[in-house]
Amino acid sequence: MKTAAARVSIGRPDTWQVIGGSAAVVAAGGLAHLAGRADWSEIGGATLAVKVHLGAAVGALALGAMLMAAPKGRTVHRRLGWTWAVLMAVVALSSFFIREAEPGRLSWIHALSGWVLLALPMGLAAARRRRVHVHRRTMGALFYGGLVLAGAFTFVPERLLWRTFIG
């Protein structure tokens, strides 16, 4: 049985975690503001793959922001981290069924989904092997690159989320 002192902890969040977590919270607040004037019919008429992808991405973004800001190495972090990993896998896998940008073909953004599917198990394995620095770097890259940066590209004019929130 492990004592509290024997638990693995990476200590205080570093500056980039604080900045990134804060940016995610501000972005979520901005989206909540836009949600009040959004035209949800765009999403209502989307394919099942788009709805699954969007739902998993929003869940992963919210949970990921919480995980980045919360203490690490505890049971809650591990359990929520596994939930986040499943959501990320769903986001990546569901993207392969979305081909509206280039009908019938995979686009360059699908390479990001492939990267997520490769990096995710590596980040999980690093945590299990107690290679905290590798785990932190990998999961941070997945969160910021795979969710935040990729999410920003969903607001390009004429894409679904642009039409839903901006018009």
How does this model look, in words?
The structure is a single chain. This protein is 69% helix and 0% strand. The protein starts with 14 loop residues before the first helix and ends with a helix. Helix 1 packs across helix 3, helix 3 crosses helix 6 and helix 4 runs antiparallel to helix 5. It has one domain. With 167 residues, it is mostly helical.
Summarize it.
By secondary structure, the chain is mainly α.
Give the key terms:
167 residues; mainly alpha; 7 helices; 0% strand; disordered N terminus
- How would you characterize the largest beta sheet? none
Q: What string, H for helix and E for strand, traces the elements in order?
A: HHHHHHH
Q: What proportion strand?
A: under 5%
Question: Which structural class best describes the helix and strand composition?
Answer: mainly alpha
Indicate the overall shape.
globular
Oligomer: single chain
Provide the helix percentage: 55-70%
Would you identify the regions where 5 or more consecutive residues have pLDDT less than 50?
A: 1-10
Number of strands: 0
